[in-house]
Design a protein that fits this description.
This protein has helices at about 5-15, 20-30, 70-80, 100-110, 125-130, 185-205, 210-220; strands at about 45, 50-60, 85-90, 115, 120, 135, 140, 150-155, 155-160, 160-165, 170-175, 175-180. With about 220 residues, the chain is of the alpha/beta class. It has one domain: 3-Layer(bba) Sandwich (Glucose Oxidase, domain 1), CATH 3.50.30. Strands 1, 2, 3, 4, 6, 8, 11 and 12 form an 8-stranded mixed β-sheet that branches. It has a two-stranded parallel sheet with strand order 5-7.
Amino acid sequence: MEFPTEQDLFQHLEERAYAALFSDVLDGMGYRSQAVSPEAAIRPLSEKFVSAGRAVTLLNAPDTNEEDPYDLVIRCIDAIQPGSVMVATGSQRLETGIMGELTATALRARQCRGAIVNGYTRDSRKLISMGYPTFAWGSSPIDTTGRVRVVRTNIPVVIGGVTISPGDMVFADMDGIVVVPRSVEGEVINRVLERLSTENMVRKELSEGKTMAEVWSRYHVL
């Protein structure tokens, strides 16, 4: 299946695919450690949120200097490309909200497809109301100014046991977050699209009363 743009591909995947499918396909290819551990406790703020795109990474660290607190993050977000997903984490566990509604507004205007936060967000009600796909531990009202700042961008980061490098494709939904290595991305996407077609046939036959044994013997998918 061909798509006019990468944005169209990501939109198609968000509408039809799901994290478990990506994880299954990667498992079958021998990449069995690409799903972020559920123990990382990163959840969508709304169960409807789904996001697929290329990772742009931000590393936050404690910093009590209040001068120019947003310099690096502003430069990163202003340069973000369509089809990105912002991936923010900390050098250690942080209590501040490192993502918020105004940031999401800027990201959306630049066609960034969502935010994965290995930490807390702020403005959760507004993020949900505006429908911006955001995944995080939960919410914190605590501001970063004089406490935390972005210290590096576009570097490999490790979240839930998985290394996420800039440009890696990530897929996130209610089930979790899966990272697709760029070296096998094309094959993974093709297999995901094929599996979606197969699962439609499996679903149809099961709904018609075929036994699970019959369906399994024919498709080896359940």
